[in-house]
Specification:
By secondary structure, this protein is α+β, with helices and mostly antiparallel strands. It has 4 domains: 201 residues, Immunoglobulin-like (Sandwich), CATH 2.60.40; 92 residues, 2-Layer Sandwich (Zincin-like); 146 residues, Neutral Protease, domain 2 (Orthogonal Bundle); 144 residues, Alpha Horseshoe (Serine Threonine Protein Phosphatase 5, Tetratricopeptide repeat). Helices cover 38% and strands 22% of the residues. It is built from 20 helices and 22 strands. The strands form 5 sheets. An 8-stranded mixed beta sheet has the order 5-4-8-2-1-11-14-13, with no helix packed on it. Strands 16-17-18-20-19 form a 5-stranded mixed beta sheet, with helices on one face. It is globular, with a radius of gyration of 25 Å. The protein starts with 13 loop residues before the first strand and ends in a 5-residue tail after the last helix. The structure holds ligand BES and zinc ion.
């Protein structure tokens, strides 16, 4: 029986096999209007109602084959929205199917959608709409059984004045006399609701590989097509490691700057932030990550958000395997070192006994957005990395990874399912010796313990050494009246990730005197760097030292970059810095409409402006 504490649907009585969306995009009203048809099937006997998740949706009517059905929109649950209870025409026997059509419209409160004014786009001429459904925002895009335990196929007809793209395969378009077009889509693999995605805007496409096209506003096309040339190599490396890529196309959509994440693995069409366009291909690991989700997350899906690590921990593990195969082991290990630091920061931010620092937290009554952190990513990665070494290395573990995908493809699983298969595969393939090893694992501490992982993996630090060395040199200069012995050459040969690690290490120390920061900036030109990851770390280092010169840079960056990984720590640190609190709040409030609703809600909490 699927269990999902964050859905109000009767998942144990009825399932959705397919949905068809017919929506019109109304930019003037900032609303999607139309209908969804759900193909439902009873999974127990005598099922007389279906309960769907909705959030701030205006439900207009419910019917089945032209007959009106009674429905009730229940009182809103603060975090999970309003359950929509529909009385079926007659009780269904087990395995019996029915179709239900709901006429509805989205409202301004719907958290999945961001409606951008022309001024908020790159081209400034046309409006733009995009959705972000993970984790539980699909219910504000359409009434549905909004749980990752429920996988369905979907089709859609989207009528819009500008090009529409979705997490599906395009199936033609009909132009209308009034200037709008109906774009048709089909996703014929079963996907969970959180992978339904739509974007509408002034979009162009260009081929970047045999199965890949990049979509962007025309102004960014050149940069995007150049940055993501390695896409096909990532996919092929993933296929060598796991199974053939199963989704037909792998396209990329580069969104406007308010996109709240680095990337989102919407099937057939990954959404990415424009902050990846560094001009040197140094941030494309995010694309490798989203490609890895094609297996881990999109084929093998977590049953509910408590087992989110099965999506993200596995994906980070595969992402680093791809990186290691393409660029060498020292690069993937360096990425693991960086990840471990991020994990430490998440644990410090929550506190090491906080329940959300457990790999498998309890989410009953909780909003998954509040539980989101690097813990499932990096603690999950560290568990898999540890298991790989412990069980005998890649020769043992890579065949297992492939078997895991083959076993669970198309299904939703939890941590117990995962562990049971790990045991049975190891026993069947390698015998009792591996089972004995598995029995030695401290499962409880790994899976339910809070704080940092119980085992300290040793990562190859070849690429980290130079960063540590330079950091020490600055540290020991802190009492000099004039820091000397530094030069632009110190970082000239660094990769951008090495510069990031150097700055992160500096941030761990007592803040440097301001004249040292002046000198560091004069030599390394950090304030003018465009690379978003370096810029972020430089700003954070300066904020920690209450270096007020950087404040205008911080407010400019945080109000033009909606990616939460960047905007949230920037505004949080500014809020804590000397004379920064009012400035942080003012920056956020002035630019509130720039942020996606999900980001705006999180930042408001960070700055003490909401609960
Ligand atoms: N699926 C996530 C993004 C996400 C997670 C959205 C939870 C909403 C709720 C995506 O694959 C991701 O992990 N993105 C990272 C990329 C990074 C780890 C390489 C990001 O956005 O930074
Ligand atoms: Zn991910």
């Amino acid at each position: 029986m699927p269990y999902d504490p964050t859905s109000q649907s009767n998942l144990d009585e009825i399932r959705t096999n397919h949905i068809h969306l017919a929506l019109t995009v109304d930019f003037a009203a900032k609303a999607l209007t139309g209908s969804v048809e759900l193909e439902l099937e009873a999974i127990t006997s005598n099922v007389s109602k279906v309960v769907l998740d909705t959030s701030y949706i205006d439900v207009r009517s419910v019917s089945t084959q032209g007959h009106v059905l009674k429905f009730n929109l229940e009182k809103r649950h603060e975090k999970y929205g309003s359950a929509l209870s529909i009385e079926l025409a007659k009780p269904l026997a087990k395995n019996e199917s029915t179709k239900v059509t709901i006429e509805y419209a989205t409202t301004q409160e719907c958290t999945a959608c961001q409606w951008l004014e022309p001024s908020q786009t790159v081209g400034k001429k046309h409006p733009y709409l995009f959705t972000q459904c993970q984790a539980i925002h699909a219910r504000s895009l359409l009434p549905c059984q909004d749980s990752p335990s429920m996988k369905l196929t979907y089709t859609a007809d989207i009528t819009a004045p500008l090009r529409a793209v979705m997490s599906a395969v395009p199936k033609g378009e009909d132009k209308h006399k009034n200037g709008t077009t109906t774009f048709k889509f089909e996703q014929c693999q079963r996907v969970p609701s959180y992978l339904i995605a739509l974007a509408v805007g002034n979009l162009e496409s260009r081929e970047i590989g045999p199965r890949s096209t990049v979509w962007t506003e025309p102004e960014v096309m050149e940069a995007a097509a150049w940055e993501f040339v390695d896409t096909e190599n990532f996919i092929r490396t993933g296929e060598e490691l796991l199974t053939p890529y199963d989704w037909g196309r792998y396209d990329l959509l580069v969104l406007p700057a308010s996109f709240p994440y680095g990337g989102m693995e919407n099937p057939c069409l990954t959404f990415v932030t424009p902050s990846l366009l560094a001009g040197d291909r140094s941030l494309v690991d995010v694309v490798a990550h989203e490609i890895a989700h094609s297996w881990m997350g999109n084929l093998v899906t977590t049953e509910n958000w408590e087992h989110f690590w099965l999506n993200e921990g596995f994906t980070v593990f595969v992402e680093r395997k791809i990186l290691g195969r393409m660029k060498g082991k020292e690069h993937s290990e360096f990425s693991a070192i960086l990840g471990y630091k991020a994990l430490q920061e998440s644990v410090d931010l929550y506190g090491k006994e906080h329940p959300f620092t457990a790999l498998r937290p309890c989410l009953r009554g909780e909003d998954p957005d509040d539980a989101f952190s690097r813990v499932p990513y990096e603690k999950g990665f560290n568990l898999l990395y540890y298991l790989e070494k412990h069980l005998g290395g890649p020769e043992v573990f890579e065949p297992y990874l492939r078997a895991h995908v083959q076993e669970f493809a198309g299904r939703s699983i939890n941590t117990d399912d995962w562990k049971a298969f790990l045991y049975s595969f190891m026993e069947k393939t390698f015998g009792q010796e591996k089972v004995d090893l598995l029995n030695k694992v401290d499962w409880d501490t790994w899976l339910v313990g809070t704080g940092m992982p119980p085992f300290d993996n040793r990562f190859d630090d070849t690429l980290a050494k130079a960063c540590t060395c330079l950091c020490k040199k600055w540290d020991s200069s802190r009492h000099d009246t004039h820091p000397s012995g530094f030069a632009p050459e110190d970082i000239a040969k660094f990769s951008s990730t090495q510069t990031v690690v150097f700055l992160e290490k500096m941030s761990e120390l007592e803040p440097l005197p301001h004249k040292h920061l002046d000198e560091m900036d004069r030599l390394y030109r950090l304030t003018t760097v465009r690379n978003s990851e370096i810029r972020l770390r430089w700003h954070l280092l300066c904020l920690k030292a209450d270096y007020e010169k950087i404040y205008p840079e911080v407010t400019a960056f945080a109000s033009s970059m909606g990616r939460m990984k960047m905007a949230r720590p920037l505004l949080r640190s500014l809020y804590k810095a000397k004379n920064g609190a009012d400035l942080a709040r003012e920056t956020f409030l002035t630019h509130k409409s720039f942020y996606h609703p999900i980001a705006a809600a999180m930042i408001a909490k960070d700055l003490g402006l909401a609960k």
